[in-house]
Amino acid sequence: MADKKYWKGLEEINHASTPKKTADEFPDELPVISELGKADALASNRRDFLKMMGFSVTAATLAASCEMPVRKSIPYLVKPDEITPGVANYYASTYAEGGDYCSVLVKTREGRPIKIEGNKLSKISKGGSSAAVQASVLSLYDNYRLQGPHIEGEEVSWRNADEAIKGELESIAARGGKIRILSSTILSPSTKQVIKDFIAKYPTTKHVVYDAVSCSGLLSANEVTLGKRVIPNYRFDVADVIVSVGADFLGTWISPVEFAAQYSSRRKVTKTNKRMNRHVQIESYFSLSGTNADKRIMVKPSEENAALLHLYNAVASKTGGQSVTAGQLDDQHKAEITKTADELVAARGKSIVVCGINDVNAQLITNAINQLLGNYGTTIDLVNYSKQRKGDDAAMNELVSELSTVDALIVLDANPVYNYPDVDNKLKQGLEKVKLTVSMNLKKDETSEFCKYLCPTPHYLEAWNDAMPKNGFYSITQPTISPLFRTRSAAESLLKWSGTDVSYYDYIRDFWKQNIFPKQSRFSSFDVLWDRAVHDGVLDIEVSGELTVGNIDAGSAGAALAKKSGGEGMDLVVYEKVATRDGKFSDNPWLQELPDPVSKVAWDNYACVSKKTAEKLGLKTALNKINESVGTETDLLTVSANGYEITIPALVQPGTPDDTLAIAVGYGRDIAGKTGFIGQNVYPFLKYQSSGISNIVSGVTATHVAGKTFKIAQTQMHHSIHDGLNERRIVKETTLAEYNENPFAGNEDRAFVQKHLKSLYPPYENLKNGHHWEMAIDLNTCIGCSACVVACTAENNVPVVGKDEVRRSREMHWLRIDRYFAGDETNPSVIYQPMLCQHCDNAPCENVCPVSATNHSSEGLNQMAYNRCFGTRYCANNCPYKVRRFNWFDYLGADSFFKGTIFDNDKDPHEMADDLTRMVLNPDVTVRSRGVMEKCSFCAQRIQEGKLKAKKEARPLKETDIVPACQDACPTNAITFGDINNEKTEVFKIANDERGFKVLEEIHTLPSITYLTKVRNKDKSEA
Amino acid sequence: MSAYESPIREPLVTGGKTYHQITRDIVRSTEGMPPLSWFAVTGLAATVLMLGSLAILYTLWMGIGTWGLNRTVGWAWDITNFVWWIGIGHAGTLISAILLIFRQRWRTGINRSAEAMTIFAVMCAGLFPGIHMGRPWDAFFIFPYPNTRGPLWPNFNSPLLWDVFAISTYFTVSLLFWYSGLLPDFATIRDQAKSKFRKLTYNALSFGWTGSAKHWQRFESLSLVLAGLATPLVLSVHTIVSFDFATSVIPGWHTTIFPPYFVAGAIFSGFAMVLTLMIITRKVLKLEDYITIGHIESMNKVIILTGSIVGIAYITELFMAWYSGYMYEQYAFYNRALGPYWWAYWIMMFCNVVSPQVFWIKKLRRSVAFTFFMSIIINIGMWFERFVIIVTSLHRDFLPSSWTYFTPTIVDIGIFAATLGLFFTLFLLFARTFPVVAMAEVKAILKTSGDTQKQRHTEHVDDGHHGGGEVAGVLRNKA
Fold first, then answer.
1. I want to staple B166 with a disulfide (CB 3.0 to 4.6 A). Which of A170, A752, A776, B240 is the partner?
2. Which ranges of chain A have pLDDT less than 50?
3. A482 backbone φψ class: left, alpha, beta (φ>0; ψ -120 to 50)
4. Min CA distance, B69 vs chain A (Å)?
5. Could you give phi then psi for residue A818, rounded to 5 degrees?
């Protein structure tokens, strides 16, 4: 009876609370769903809502009540006419430092100069610039500058200083005491006139010009040959064959910005112009010019003279000149030099020979070669001769020897205590005896330590000045900011002391009115001329009167030179680095952070040695460094010569001759500014010899310092493009001969790569609409000068991280110049490749960012949203070009706490974040905080500015509207930027050139930068 | 579970345990004052944790620059440690989930500790994605929460985002699984407790478990559901971790072999860590009857299997580098083996490929001391595997101009030490407060796999009373 129900009591039937046996108490299937289904009362009600809201509001109030500091920004009470907040003003000006010349545009924002750009109106610098020019704006905002006049260390007023100095000068003049003005090369004709006026007032005054790295020999030779102590106007742009003997004309010699522009204008090969100049460099250390040479003949420093003489003889034998006795040289070098001479002779009248040896006889021989080749008047212009070096080593030597009898010494922008080879301390002892010593300089230096009076001069961006770098070329320096400190132009001080109470500005105007205005006919009114000159920054005047080339006694010059060639044992050659040059600006952090183009070492000088020499000296760590390509550790060397000794890190540098040390000057300053004490001073190794201070020292001893190593801040290790297994196709090169046969030469594989570029995804059609920004970089005209790197640093507020961080490979440069060696291990050829964000259209960095902080713009830019980035570094790992830079620390003090306490958590070893230095920051570019990734933005702020400008003027965008900082700085126009979707742009043309290739195109990142194959002017036998 | 197990299978519980003895053996370790040695070891682990935490605080205060990373090597010890810890966690999940589904009875002796290990390892691992960020205070950007910035969502294409989901899911499921398994055992401890505090605490921990049939029934279904959820996770978590590398373009990372290779490696390292912990635990807490030599041997068998898979993966990578004809890939592997980090590569090769092969020898497989030694070797080897993949691939990739070298700083080492400190501190606390062996589960297999019970089965066969056991008896006689 199935339906019969048993019950144990009435309770069971009547009470619902009694558990009922249900069918599914222990079901076989999972009861989860049915159990969950019962929870149907989950919906919240009004009370819960109010409770939650009450809590949230309270919590938010508590959390948000932390007080934020109030910062007041005060608007202009009366707005200056020309300043619109947020809009930059540009003023033409002139950079003239110790003979280095560059016409510039100064970009100012709200009255602050923040960026230096090249002035395209200049016929000399042609809109180019150098690393030093780009970095000069940082020197303006430097707390280490002198902030007012000093007398014996006491800060005084200008009136007190003037009275004291004038009084002393007058009493010295009254008793006929010797007064000397010591300066580096002065380009300003007005200042020169001021000095003349000063001499007129104090007739016992003599003006001695002294350059740390002088061209004294060249000037003396020209005095003989040309009858005038000047430098001729070299025209590398019309020379077919260029031979340089130890002159780094692309990096440091006389006027590198100008020469680089001229030189590269002849290396822009295209299908229609398949000719380019041929450059042979004979040198004893790896200079920037040497790395760019088509043929580099490497000789020992002491053999440079012999090499020059052999060159002379080889030229003379074919052109009918007298032969001279030449020093010893091995047969291989002789053969190479003879071949070079053949090339020169074949290009007679269209060749140029320059020589960097600071010796009058070597320069005479060079002049003789140029004369035999008929280069004067063609490639060496004698009308617009140059005044860019005036230093006279003999005059300086004389000054030093008579110093103890001198009564007054006024030092104007020179620092002999640091950079004069004062072997027997004659200079220092003499200085102590001089009664009146005045230093007129931007900041304290080694020489000013010996001076009683410090009369600080303004930075060139703060004062009026003028310049005449070459005959007929004038230039104006105008102030772009009120002087930050109590400073006064040196010229104005000299005027004061000679009793002329006019401002220097009025003086310059007057000088121009008297001396320049009458020489021209273009302007009928002086005011118009002046306004034009101030506006343009430059004024060119037709000049006539060619210097005549006299007879050159090559025989005696050669004989004298031959005596000096050759040398036993170790040679030392000291050279200038492209960035830090003679050491005047070695306290500029931007320049120190810039790796040397050749060695890729920043923040130090070092002794370059060849591998063989390293083996001989037992430099195991240094050799290990190149063999293993890991770490930064290298050996220390003790170098001694001429009674001076230093200990310096060694660097195995390919391209250095055996038994040779090459060490850069400009380091080891005793007065260090922001950069601190770095490197060793090598000026004291040098010696004044009969006609000048040679940069070559023979008979040097170098010994390995056992048991000690040094960590060098090198950004790139010694890797060749060949990784040990394969030849990586990252850079491409060919020879002119091959290029002439096939414009795809060296780039043949691109067609294969492009054919195989296939994707599963449809192409990004939308990138073909509107603008699409791309860049083209010509590897043939990039000389590696690194002006672009500093320009990028200045434009984009790239932080300086310091030596220690560079040692850890944490430099922040958005744009770097990769240097690869090729070929022969001892004397390799070099190829430079500017490497920056490639703005890939299929960017590997973009898809891996978990928060889309890096993403693609509709105009093809790979953008960074700094606020969104939280720093997983995944993008940098996945970037095949390794161009992304991470803010490992708070380098710019963007969010530091407890500054100056032990809890200080920013990393600013070079005082780049103090209030004064921060004035150099570009307000258009975000200062990145710690923990954020950054990289090249293609100067997004400039793109925006250019677009807005076109929009305001209601016209289509022009190519010239948008010029990124790197392109702007480039002296050789190697960089082109523009809209690839516009077929009329230069970048479109270049991108479709046969030489065009993209780096790592085969991994289908679709980069936006096209590189052009490097073409070396080599014949087939050299290739 | 089936009520019968072949007598040729080793007993999984030895020492002739009764249910009560099992309860006492396991609960004993949670009672009373721990020995001095425990305080010493825990103190040491906690000290390491504290010192290491200073390194973490220093990193948070100063920035990632305190580590040895550079512009080319953006990840090194951080992600190495992360992957290593995540990998270690895998053994716990494998044991609790996959072995449960495959009805491997030997899992019962070790699953509790292995799951605890998983939880702690994932906690250690989870630390790294957090602190390796440049701006950890903005870590919440990673979560897809509605916001007023658009709304702006995270990038769903990024493997790092997948990681966040994979690991948080993994951690949640593992924690639930572990804790739900603990409920009946907490109740057992409560029932054994004498002090009121203990009773209250364990009662709360057990969520008021009464042991009713309904409780057991729900408990079993939950276990099965969680096992079902956890099983794909065993494979997915490390697959997704491997995507961090596999989806990139960097030679040495960009490879499709990574998912299975990483999963095998994870299980490999996880079992090694389980062995390290279990060999000490069974000795110290005298649990040799529950974690028998047979257990150790079973785990060693898993190690030899996964170790061999890993070895094949390494060799396949080398083969593919050569076969691909892709110069960057070729160099990446050439550089691994012969570049500046050759030592790391060969440590990895020796520890992970060569050394586990000795377990083909039964005697070594069953040697406690040797297994312990090997488990340490494998842990080292697997750490180096991740280091080799991450650092040697990054430090020399496409452009030779950017090649660098990575050297860890004291902070890198400190943070790794901190996680080791955290891991062992938590495990030691666990060992003295939680039942380290799943009592309920061991009791469930006692009837089938206990030694006396097996003995009884065999005796029945000999008596000829129990026809079902005849075959086994014959086999046994033959043996």
1. B240
2. 41
3. beta
4. 8
5. -75, 135
